[in-house]
Amino acid sequence: MFEDLKGRKAVITGSTSGIGLAFAEGLAKMGVDITLNGFGDQGEIEDNRARIAGETGVDVRYDGADMTKPQEIRDLIKGAEAAHGRVDILVNNAGIQKVAPIDEYDDEVWDRIIAINLTSNYHTIKAALPGMKERKFGRIVNIASAHGLVASPFKSAYNAAKHGVVGLTKTVALEAAEFGVTCNAICPGFTLTPLLEAQMADNAKARGITEEEAKAKLLNDAHATKEFVTYDNLVGMLAYLCSDAGSGATGYPYAVDAGWTAH
């Protein structure tokens, strides 16, 4: 179905683990050359890079740009353009989380969450969009979370950043619409990632319950299906939005959230 993706070039921030790594694996299987980005154990990152390249036959490179540093973000895009000739697909997936009451929130943590989860999207888009407009093709997908549509307690910085991502998505879509460039957001529900595992531990502590109770509460309170969203669910949506089939979709936050925001 997504044969038109073959030969495209993608940059995926926050793609060394979790959802971002699943996005990289999924697009690579469809023939997309990939620039990975993120932190982690360098040996593990190289193992994943080599594995994806070996399994799919596409070119997979890694750039360790820090999403809190604008110049490194600009260099990330320039490096991808130099290595692959262009950036067709930009997936802004990098994100961090901290769960705490707002009156106990750490100021430096707030600033870091806003920088990585929201402001980095501005910098990547600003760097990649001119080339996309010139070529009359581009797919920008921002990973906003269901928390870009609804709020939860103890997540003030994350909620604020992800709501901001949705607003940014709409604005970029309007500005780029006449240049063959789409900009959409994917709003995942709870997905079992390393970030969520850490979040559940923090949430359990904040609420004075066990981690298993916190996990059950997440699903019972949020997901109509009572199941976690899977990586395959999210990769399918990403592929659609990046493909020719998704060319008519722009400026919208697509919920892949097991019915959460239908409440």
Automatic annotation (TrEMBL):
Q: What's its EC?
A: 1.1.1.30
GO MF assignments? 3-hydroxybutyrate dehydrogenase activity
Q: Which Pfam families does the entry link to?
A: adh_short (PF00106)
In terms of InterPro entries, this protein maps to: 3-OHbutyrate_DH, NAD(P)-bd_dom_sf, Sc_DH/Rdtase_CS, SDR, SDR_fam
Keyword Oxidoreductase set for record = yes
Q: Which GO terms describe its biological process?
A: monocarboxylic acid metabolic process
Q: What class of enzyme is it?
A: oxidoreductase
Q: Which UniProt keywords apply?
A: Oxidoreductase
The entry assigns this protein to a family as follows: Belongs to the short-chain dehydrogenases/reductases (SDR) family.
Q: PANTHER family under this entry?
A: 3-OXOACYL-(ACYL-CARRIER-PROTEIN) REDUCTASE, 3-OXOACYL-[ACYL-CARRIER-PROTEIN] REDUCTASE FABG
Protein name as catalogued? 3-hydroxybutyrate dehydrogenase
What is the source species? Answer: Parvularcula maris
